[in-house]
Design goal:
Blueprint lengths: L1 H16 L11 H4 L7 H13 L15 H20 L3 H4 L4 H29 L7 H5 L1 H7 L4 H14 L8 H4 L10 H21 L5 H6 L12 H8 L6 E4 L40 E4 L2 E4 L5 E3 L9 E5 L5 E4 L15 E5 L4 E4 L2 E3 L4 E6 L2 E6 L2 E3 L4 E6 L2 E6 L2 E3 L4 E6 L2 E6 L2 E3 L12 E4 L2 E7 L2 E7 L4 E4 L12 E3 L5 E3 L3 E7 L2 E7 L13 E4 L1 E7 L2 E5 L3 E4 L29 E6 L2 E3 L13 E6 L8 E4 L2 E3 L4 E5 L6 E2 L1 H6 L7 E3 L7 E2 L15 E3 L4 E3 L3 E5 L6 E4 L1
Parallel strand pairs: 1-2, 2-5, 3-6, 4-7, 5-8, 6-9, 7-10, 8-11, 9-12, 10-13, 11-14, 12-15, 13-16, 14-17, 15-18, 16-19, 17-20, 18-21, 20-25, 21-26, 22-27, 25-28, 26-29, 27-30, 28-31, 29-32, 30-33, 31-34, 32-35, 33-36, 35-38, 39-42
Antiparallel strand pairs: 23-24, 36-37, 40-41, 42-43
Length: about 725
C-alpha cells in the first residue's frame, strides 16, 4: 500500500503544479504523474520485492498472494486508473494550466485518494482476522469493503458530495473539469464512488489472487461496468493514447531517409514514413512513444527486433497496426529446426516494461516467434502468430504480462510456453491448426519452470493434434531453473523440488476437436485435452471440452527422483538427474463439461469413452474432481493409475471420491452449463436452439437442463 500512496502523492503533486496560471513550461501530465527523479517510487518498488521474497513469504502461501512485480504494477495502476476514471485516458490534454478547473481537479484527486485508502484499510483489517484464513474467507473481505463496518467510507463520501456541491468544484462544468467516466452523470458523487470501487476491487483481486467478481462489486449489478478478466494495469496501457512521438513506417512508399513523423508519403523535404524498422537502431524510444506500421510485409532478414526499452505506467511504448491495416513482421527464417548458435532465435524479443504490441502478425519464425525475456507489464493484443519451430511465444523470467484476443496457428511444437514467469494472463485467444509436418506435436499451452499465478480465461483451442495436452496446468517434467533454484534443501540435507507451477487457473475455456497422437514421443498414459500436471494450488473450472480424445486428466510430472542437490552440475552427464516426479496438490477440477468424447483410449484397447484419468498417488493431496458433466452415448470410463490400471465405470469412480455431484447424459441431452461464479458462461447444446438472457432460459423443445447456481439441482423446462 505504501507504493500506491507514493504514486498517488505524485499524481496530486502534479495536479497541484497545474493550478498556477503563470510560470514556466510544464511537462505533459502523463510524464509528470510518473516522474521519479528522486527515486522514491523505485525505492518503494524495491521494498515490495524485499518483502515478497523475505522469510515470511518463502515459500509463498497457497493462496492470497502474487509476485512482487505484479503487486508493484497493481499499486501504480490503481493510482493511474483512478486518474483515468476521473479525467479520461486523454488526461494529458485535459489537465491544463490555471483556472478554477485546475483547483477542482487537485481537490478531486485528493478526495479520490482518501476514498481508496479507506477501502484498502478495511480490506487489510479483515484480512488479518481468522475468518480470512481460507481462499473463500479472504475473498469475502470484499463484503466488508462494501458494507463499510467503520463508517469511514460514508464519511469520505460525504466530503466528496460537499466538494462537488459547495467546495472547489461547485458551479463548474464537471464535463470540462473532470471529463472521465462520470462526465454528465445524474449523480456524479455516486458515479465516482462506483468507479473507484471498481479500481479497488481490481487492485485487490490482482494482488491477492481472489478470483473476485468485480463487475458486481462496483455497483451490485452484473452489467459489465467492471468486467473482463485481467488487471487494471493492462486496461490502463490499452486505453492510454500516445503521449510522446509517433513514428510511422510504410512498406509501400516509405524511405528510411525520412524523419518518420508522418504516415503520408510524397510530402518531400525528408518528411514522411520510414520504409522499415531499421531506423529504430538509431532512434531510441522513450515513454509515450509509438511505432505505427502501415500495411505491408516487413522483412527482418533474420535480424532480431530487440525491444529493450521501457515506457511508464501512464505512458507506454506502443507498436501497432496503423488504423487496423494488415501488418506482417516476417523473420525470414525457414520453418522448423534450430538456428545456428550464433544466430538470434526469436523474431522479436521484449525485454522492457510497459510495452504494447497491437494488431500485428508475426511469422517466418525459426525457433521462437516472440520471446518475452525478463520483460514485464506489457500487453500483446490482437496479434497473429504463425509458426514457431519450438514456441510461438515463449516467456522466460517474465512478470505481469497479458496476451489478449490473439491468434496462434501453424506452430510446430508449442503455441505458448510459460517458463519461470509470474502473474501471466492469456485471455480470449484462439489456438488452432498446428503443423505436425516438421516436428512431432507436444502441448499447445503449458506452464512450467516454477511459474506462478498464471491465468487462462475464455480461450478457444480447436482443430489440434497434441501429444500431451491442448491446455496444461503445470508442465510435462520438473526441470531445473535458476541454477537449481527449483530445489529446496532442509537442515538435514534432504532435497525436494518446488512445484513445476503453482496457482494456475483455467476458467471458461473451450477445447474442441483435439486428437491425441499416441505415436508421438511425448504421448503418455495421462495425455488429454485438458491436463493438470504436477501443479499445486491450481483449478480448472467452467471449461467446455467437445470431441476430444480423453477430455480430462490429473497427473504427476514425468521423471525420477534421483540424487540432485544445490550446486550440482546438471550439465555433466551422470552428475545428477534434474528430472523429478512432482505430484499435483490442492487441485480442483469442477463445473466442466465434456461433450461426445471420441471413442478412443490412449494406447488403444477396447472402444470406450475415457473421460478422466488421475494419478494413483492422489490420496492426501486434496485432489477435487466434482460437479462435471459428461455427455456421451457410449459408457464412459475412468482410470486411477497408469495405462495398465483397470478402467472404472461411473459408480466405481464415484466410490473413489470423485464426481459425486456430476451427471452423465446422452449427447442429445447435453446441458446448458450456467455458472454465475464464472460470469454466466453460456455452454450450449449443439444443433439445438437455445436463447439465454438474465431473465429467462427458453428452448425450442422440452429438454433436461442443468442449472448450476451453487448446485441447486437439475431442472426440466418445457
Amino acid at each position: 500500500m505504501s507504493l500506491y500512496k507514493a504514486q498517488m502523492r505524485q499524481v496530486v503533486k502534479c495536479l497541484k503544479s497545474y493550478e498556477s496560471a503563470g510560470g514556466g513550461f510544464l511537462v505533459p501530465a502523463a510524464w509528470c504523474f510518473t516522474d521519479d527523479a528522486s527515486g522514491h517510487l523505485q525505492r518503494r518498488e524495491e521494498r515490495v520485492t524485499r518483502r515478497a521474497e523475505g522469510k515470511k513469504c518463502s515459500p509463498p502461501p497457497p493462496f492470497g498472494t502474487s509476485g512482487a512485480d505484479n503487486i508493484s504494477a497493481a499499486a501504480r495502476a490503481l493510482a493511474i486508473g483512478a486518474v483515468i476514471e476521473l479525467f479520461s485516458p486523454g488526461f494529458s490534454d485535459v489537465v491544463s494550466r490555471g483556472g478554477a478547473d485546475a483547483a477542482c481537479r487537485t481537490a478531486l484527486g485528493r478526495q479520490a485518494d482518501k476514498l481508496l485508502r479507506v477501502d484498502l484499510k478495511t480490506f487489510r483489517s479483515c484480512a488479518k482476522t481468522p475468518a480470512a484464513g481460507t481462499r473463500l474467507g479472504l475473498r469475502s473481505c470484499l463484503d466488508d469493503v462494501r458494507s463499510d463496518p467503520t463508517g469511514n467510507h460514508a464519511t469520505q463520501m460525504g466530503k466528496l458530495s460537499a466538494l462537488l456541491a459547495s467546495g472547489k468544484c461547485a458551479g463548474l462544468d464537471l464535463g470540462a473539469a473532470a471529463p472521465g467516466r462520470c462526465a454528465g452523470a445524474f449523480d456524479p458523487a455516486s458515479c465516482i464512488e462506483e468507479r473507484l470501487r471498481c479500481q479497488v476491487c481490481r487492485y485487490l483481486d490482482a494482488v491477492h489472487d481472489l478470483g473476485a467478481d468485480c463487475d458486481e462489486f462496483d455497483d451490485g449489478a452484473a452489467n459489465d461496468t467492471c468486467g473482463a478478466r485481467y488487471p487494471q494495469i493492462f486496461r490502463n496501457l490499452l486505453a492510454l493514447p500516445a503521449a510522446g512521438v509517433t513514428y510511422y513506417v510504410s512498406d509501400a512508399c516509405g524511405d528510411n531517409a525520412n524523419d518518420g513523423l508522418s504516415p503520408e508519403c510524397g510530402q518531400g523535404g525528408g518528411h514522411g514514413p520510414w520504409k522499415d524498422l531499421t531506423p529504430l537502431d538509431s532512434t531510441p524510444l522513450g515513454p509515450g512513444d509509438a511505432v505505427a506500421l502501415r500495411e505491408g510485409v516487413y522483412h527482418m532478414n533474420r535480424q532480431l527486433l530487440d525491444v529493450d526499452v521501457s515506457g511508464s505506467p501512464a505512458a507506454p511504448i506502443r507498436f501497432y497496426a496503423y488504423q487496423g491495416e494488415s501488418v506482417v513482421i516476417d523473420g525470414d527464417w525457414p520453418a522448423g529446426g534450430s538456428p545456428p548458435p550464433s544466430e538470434p532465435k526469436p523474431v522479436i524479443r521484449l525485454a522492457g516494461k510497459y510495452l504494447v504490441f497491437d494488431g500485428i502478425e508475426i511469422r517466418g519464425c525459426y525457433e521462437t516467434c516472440v520471446l518475452i525475456h525478463q520483460g514485464a507489464r506489457s500487453v500483446l493484443r490482437g496479434v497473429r502468430v504463425v509458426g514457431g519451430g519450438e514456441d510461438g511465444i515463449k516467456t522466460s523470467h517474465a512478470q505481469t504480462d497479458l496476451i489478449l484476443e490473439s491468434e496462434f496457428t501453424g506452430f510446430h511444437n508449442e503455441a505458448v510456453d510459460v517458463w519461470h514467469s509470474f502473474d501471466f494472463w492469456l485471455v480470449g485467444n484462439d489456438f488452432h491448426d498446428n503443423d505436425t509436418s516438421i516436428r512431432s506435436p507436444s502441448t499447445t499451452v503449458w506452464t512450467k519452470g516454477g511459474s506462478r499465478n498464471v491465468y487462462f480465461y475464455d480461450n478457444r483451442f480447436h482443430d489440434l493434434t497434441v501429444a500431451e495436452h491442448a491446455l496444461m496446468l503445470g508442465g510435462c517434467c520438473w526441470q531445473n531453473w535458476d541454477d537449481i533454484g527449483g530445489l529446496v534443501q532442509d537442515k538435514n540435507g534432504v532435497v525436494t523440488p518446488q512445484p513445476v507451477a503453482r496457482q494456475v487457473r483455467a476458467i471458461g475455456n473451450v477445447i474442441e476437436d483435439v486428437l491425441i497422437d499416441i505415436t508421438a514421443p511425448d504421448a503418455h498414459a495421462y495425455s488429454s485435452a485438458l491436463g493438470v500436471t504436477g501443479c499445486h494450488h491450481c483449478e480448472a473450472r467452467g471449461n467446455r471440452i467437445d470431441f476430444a480424445d480423453v477430455p480430462i486428466s490429473v497427473s504427476a510430472t514425468r521423471g525420477t527422483a534421483q540424487p540432485c542437490y544445490p550446486g550440482a552440475d546438471c550439465q555433466v552427464p551422470g552428475a545428477c538427474s534434474c528430472q523429478w516426479t512432482v505430484e499435483p496438490e490442492d487441485v480442483e477440477v469442477s463445473d466442466n463439461i465434456a461433450l461426445a468424447p471420441n471413442e478412443t483410449a490412449v494406447g488403444g484397447g477396447a472402444p470406450s469413452v475415457r473421460v478422466a484419468a488421475i494419478t494413483d498417488a492422489y490420496a492426501g493431496r486434496s485432489i477435487t474432481i466434482d460437479g462435471n458433466g459428461y455427455c456421451t452415448d457410449a459408457p464412459p470410463t475412468f482410470r486411477i493409475g497408469p495405462a495398465s490400471a483397470p478402467s472404472l465405470d461411473l459408480a466405481s469412480w464415484q466410490s473413489s471420491g470423485f464426481d459425486a455431484a456430476s451427471l452423465v447424459l446422452p449427447e442429445a441431452r447435453c446441458p446448458w452449463f450456467i455458472n454465475p461464479r464464472i460470469g454466466l458462461a453460456q455452454w450450449g447444446l449443439i444443433g439445438e436452439n437455445y436463447a439465454l438472457d438474465t431473465q429467462q432460459l427458453a428452448q425450442s423443445s422440452a429438454q433436461e437442463v442443468w442449472l448450476n447456481v451453487e448446485w441447486t439441482g437439475v431442472f426440466t423446462l418445457g
